[in-house]
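2.7 Reproducibility. Because tokenized structures are sensitive to small changes in the input, we list the exact sequence used for Helicase SKI2W, including any N-terminal residues retained from the expression construct. No trimming or masking was applied before prediction.
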Amino acid sequence: MDKTDLPPVGPDDLPLSLLEMGCSGRFELITHPLPKNKPLPPHSTLPHGLPPTCLDLKTEVEKRFLRDPAWLPVHDVDDAFHKFLKISKRQKEVDSLLHCSLSPLHSGLSVVRDPTTGMLLDFTEVLLEDTALSAKNSLSLQRQPGPPSESLRGSNTNYPFLPGGMEELTLEQIKKKSELEEDIDFEKDLLTVPPGLKAGMDFSDKEARTMKSEVNLLSLLSTFDDVLDALPEEKEGVSQKEETVKLPRTNSLEDLGIKDSGNSPSQPPANTVSLTEQKKKPQEEDKGDNKKWAVPVDITSPCEDFYKRIPDPAFKYPFELDVFQKQAILRLEAHDSVFVAAHTSAGKTVVAEYAIALSQKHMTRTIYTSPIKALSNQKFRDFKNTFGDVGLLTGDVQLNPEASCLIMTTEILRSMLYNGSEVIRDLEWVIFDEVHYINDAERGVVWEEVLIMLPEHVSIILLSATVPNAVEFSEWIGRIKKRHIYVISTVKRPVPLEHHLYTGNSTKTQKELFLLLDSIGNFLTKGYYAAVEAKKERTSKHAQSFGAKNVSQHNTTASQDRSVWQTLLNYLSQRQQTPVVAFTFSRTRCDENARSLTSLDLTSSIEKSEIHSFLQKSLTRLRGADRQLPQILLMRDLLKRGIGVHHSGILPILKEVIEMLFSKGLVKVLFATETFAMGVNMPARTVVFDSIRKHDGTGFRNLLPGEYIQMAGRAGRRGLDATGTVIILCKAGVHDMGDLHAMMLGKPTVLQSQFRLTYTMILNLLRVEALRVTDMMRRSFSENHRDTQTHEKRITELRNMLSSLPPLDTEGQLSDLLSYYHTITELRITTETLQQAVLESVNGLKALSVGRVVIVNNSQHHNALGVILQVSNDAVNRTFTALIICEKGNEEGAGDNQSNKVSLHIYNTALFIPEGPCSHTVQKLKLQDISALTTKTLKVIPERIIDNYNKRQQPRFRLDPPGQAISTATQELLRLAEANPRGITTLDPVNDLHLKGVDVVEGVMRQRVLQDCLKDFHCIHSPTFTEQFARVQERMSVQEELDKLLFLVSDQSLTLLPEYHQRIKVLEALQYVDSTGAVQLKGRVACQISSHELLLTELLFENTLSPLAPEESAALLSCLVFTQNTQIDPHITNTLQEGINQVLCVAQRIGELQRDCGIAQTAEDFVAQFKFGLTEVVYCWARGMPFAEIAELTDVQEGTIVRCIQRLDEVLKEVRQAARIVGDSVLGSKMERASLAIRRDIVFTASLYTH
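Resulting structure tokens (single pass, no recycling of outputs):
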């Protein structure tokens, strides 16, 4: 069939065409307008011609990368732009510049209804507040939520929510200018060149000026005057406004409110005033009650009406609650914050559970934080069984993050708070478990940061072991959060403890167990001496007769140890005292003790099969090779016999198996280190201490009472045992009784602040203008002694006093009165410090011997001569007995000494000469009463003088004439005074007493200069001088106290302020912040990183990681998480060695910079904290070597290796985030690959608790 050529479609033709449907011969009519001058498509639903090919890659790339303006580079614009234009000939679309995102609506419509019928009457426009608030510019909870992807962890560009207790700024503070602010004249001072550009706009007046149009707003309004007259109410409103405008600026909005109501005619004033008064009343009450933020709750009397007050509890317990638990629950129902300090196993978890149940009832959320990851995992399992809706967030695991109860480590909560996570909005409770961990030097600061950063609407529950200063600590939290904290502490343990000494070491002596401290807390010395006797009997006859030869107190051989343990454990299992926790303060000791007990078997055959099946089931999640690790095989053998080992060197999965078996009662003896006592809730019947000395990183010391109580507290299971048994082994000899007593009955460690500044904290707070680092420092527990409220009260009092004092007369002769006062004060202080230096020196004390004539100044005597009769022996408060001349009648200091006091401050060397007959007194003087040592000495007979004086103090001999010795001495002193009325020569500290200290020499010179100055003052000659000087003195003493208080309230008095400035210097030098304190790109990156932020950021920006392969970069970064010393040198590749050298070089540079900026840490110390012992291990692991082979490369224990690799994974995640901020996608993907390479096998086996 020939192809018919149709004429092209004309404008009047209908746009019709036929479409052939498949092969059936059906046609359909299509009425689409056809595309202009394009050939008709083949009208059929069947495919025609060749099958379609994939798109041309070239055009795709061109379209995606070259023509899309979003892909043009941001930096080197000019060059790239021309290159692109050449290639792409992109059409310019000027219109696209006109499109911008809409600004938020600033108003909405609200409906006006008839109040009775509900009919719609009208719509009114309502202005919306807070419309432009977002997570990037506001701390308010009113801001709009961020994107869902950031809702959990927040983002490091978000602002945090406003921390509770941080006040909004007052008017005064807003008006006060900071140093950086300056007054700007909006006519002349404006800048015309934008930052970053070379030239700017020219705003100078041009010649051609348009005529000013004479229309102004008032002239327009005047035409509406008649309209305004028709609306009288509005007019009244206007007049009222005018009146309020004239109000003076005041310091507080309340004053303004009162004045406003007074001035405005339209409002009844009484009403408003009463409102503001009401507002003021609670404030005044608060001020009066300013110390009582912590409220101790009485738990001695039973809580009778508990079920009446809470008829429908959020959580019902199968047992009757203790009083302390009921009190805590009552407080939770009232939405108050509580601090529960209770003994181990008293049941603190009840409080946490109730809070979780309450928040589920209220449909809010709870965060439960714990110091240790293992504890988080355990709590997750417990709470999951109880509540179901529970999530877990630790560094490497994220389960069910949208749950209503989230369990996490404190570090994660801190980063959520800094990054403004949306979870915080719905948060009702934060539960801090094991709060006594705030004493931890390394991580304690995190608790403080979190407590300070929590917003106002979140209530706090603190759970802790018993601490002596719970009230003080709660007082601090209450003060920074401005809310009451109820302190609930238990009086005694639910299961009392008995403490014993054990001296047995063989079957013969296995019953040698001596009670030392009974269950009611009596220390029995009888038991102690019995233990000493028992031990003595077994020392060899030789040692008894000749004294023990260097028997070391602390060391015993392994075989001795073994026999002690063997004997003790046999004895305990016979008496059914298992399960036993044996605390040993070294990991190797734990392993050795467990291994040495080869013949001990404590389990029955049924228990053995149970242990076997549990082990098999738990280890199924390991790969075949990993199940054969030496540690697992060894543990399997020990566990079947009922022996377990628990310390940081054990593989995490094994640790969990052991914990679970122990809680089921299948592990009878557990050799554990101190970490086992930290929160892991696994009580036993008996606790044994291998030793009472431990190494705390610096040296060996005895256990502190707090540590001992924490560990001993594991003994005694509630509901199972009547008492818990604690046994202290005496292996080499019996411990010193004093040490034992201090350890068992001493006060547990007080909660102390470990607050310190970290770069991450500083950068996170600098990021947000509204939060200042000084605010954080002021609120830390270490600054708890600053009672700002009381200080501020006193400051206002002093200011009022100052304003009420009479004005000073500083005219004419008195013009130099103030400078005279300052000179005198300085001279007084200089003389006093010199005097102190003299009296504390050896030569000074030598000169202060019997017979030395001194000048005495105190409340009774002014420049009176005295002679020393006796010097006391004690070096601390040395006193001098001296004979002093005085007026008749002033022997007892009864004379009028008011005049003396004023003239004290008028510098006067003139000696005291009695006006009437000369009398005398014998007094004990303190060092500060002696104002100078003269060059003269007198021959005196001290005993006679003192005896005679004492005799004449008795009423019978009161009128006797003084004895010969006294009258001679008095006459001599009087003669000296009369001979030198203008002042007597004194011993010069430098020339006579040979004191060569710099400050002494400078002091003497300064003293001379000041003394010479005094001659030139005119004010002394004024008739009203004394009166005016007294006024100055009064005013100045108030002023000085005021200045001191103002200093204490100001930031300058913060202990950490100097260090803060030093750290800011470091950050400026490294360009993390600029000179105005704005955070730069490097600072933004450092915010992402939680530890060693400076080093990691520097390595990122110096591209140290770029040349390395993924496994090498992982190996290199292991130095940030590994903290132990190793004996074995790793074998590593050359590139890695170069990397290590670079890291050390950067660390050295940062260390030196820190030292130059004044930070105390030396560069060597800074570099030494990076340990490269695991580089080879991590490198091989990332390249896929099995774990068994890796463990042989190093002397580090398996558990430690696993923990390090897990933490390394967190570091890699942080570096990946940071690389993304910098825009280095290559490094980001390399970190991802490194992370994948190490996340395998036994290292990342999921916890048994979470699955």
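Residues 230-289, 540-553, 894-905 have pLDDT under 50 and may be disordered.
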